[in-house]
Amino acid sequence: MQFVKDRFNYLFGSTKGLILVAIATVAIVTAVWGMLSGPMAEMGVREVVIKILGMDIVQSEREGRIIILYHSIAMAIVAIETYMVTSLLKMKPFFKTTINAIITVGYLLTMIFGMGFAYFGHNWAFHGLYITGLSLIFFAGVLLIIALWPWNPDYYVTDKAYAHTKSGLDLERTAFFATAVTTVISALFGAVPGSYFGNGFEVFLAENIIRYPEKSVLEYSVIGHLHIMLALIGIMITLIIGRWLNFRGLLHKIAMPLMILGTIVLNLGVWGVVTPLEPVAHMIIYVGATPSMLAALFLLIW
């Protein structure tokens, strides 16, 4: 019994354990649902897996299933990044414990009940729990923003090896903060069109319409949400690696302002695709992506 208690405390009470659980869930989903891919279907594996697991597969619902599948995986990835951020950056113990607990429950609800709804019969209670999981993750993101507030004097830095303002504002923490804020806002950017499902808005995969010359505002919103969330996951990973490796020195002082600028401009460009700025939105996106990639390059050089 003590062994089980120790294992449970490690898996759900430590950063490494929480990351391990999340990676394991992603690995299981990838391994099982990878058996439904095109190459597996050609070899006859797909039908065997569907029959053994009792999946309810309707071809006309393929797009909806795929959307729930990659949201389930993405939420686990976001949780992993969150665990790393709460571990690497200074914050009050209350926030660290609360954020980790809420986002853990959130991604597990999203993955378990989302996949249950999509692939094992449409039990709408499962769909409700899937949405509940996404909502908890969003709430954890709001708490993370509060915990990362960089203008708290307790988190100011004076070490000349790290990027900061004359007052001591930690620019690296500000970059984390900017990424967290824009991630939460960009989550809403995808939630709005999602709320219109069943009200004249039909599900689609972005790759199927990306080349269409004309798209609706909601279609632009979905495409923008998809791309900006992937970009922000990449930016957060870059910041995490820099913090983990103790990125510092001249290149750090140059990279952090670039990362903050790039993150903000990149998001403004993506949000602009659903406004009258749409014709120049991609130009703004390129302008924002360049400083972010330069910051990553400086980390790589360092």
Tally of structural domains: 2
Order of helices and strands: HHHHHHHHHHHH
The proportion of residues in beta strands is under 5%
Q: What's the mean pLDDT score? A: 92
CATH class type of the largest domain: Mainly Alpha
Q: Biggest sheet, open or closed, and with what strands and sense?
A: none
SSE-based structural type: mainly alpha
Q: Using the CA coordinates, give the radius of gyration.
A: 21 Å
- Separation of the first and last Cα atoms: 48 Å
Indicate the overall shape.
globular
The beta-strand count equals 0
Low-confidence stretches: none
Helix content: over 70%
CATH topology of the largest domain: Four Helix Bundle (Hemerythrin (Met), subunit A)
Tally of individual helices:
12
CATH architecture of the largest domain: Up-down Bundle
Architecture overview:
With 302 residues, this protein is mostly helical. It has 2 domains: 1-148; 149-302, Four Helix Bundle (Hemerythrin (Met), subunit A), CATH 1.20.120. It is 75% helix and 0% strand. The chain has 12 helices and no strands. It has helices at 2-13, 15-33, 38-42, 45-53, 62-88, 93-119, 124-148, 171-194, 206-209, 217-244, 250-271, 278-301. Helix 1 (2-13) packs across helix 2 (15-33) and helix 5 (62-88) runs parallel beside helix 10 (217-244). The longest helix is centred in the last third of the chain and has 28 residues, at 217-244. It starts with a helix and ends with a helix. The model has no long low-confidence stretch (mean pLDDT 92).
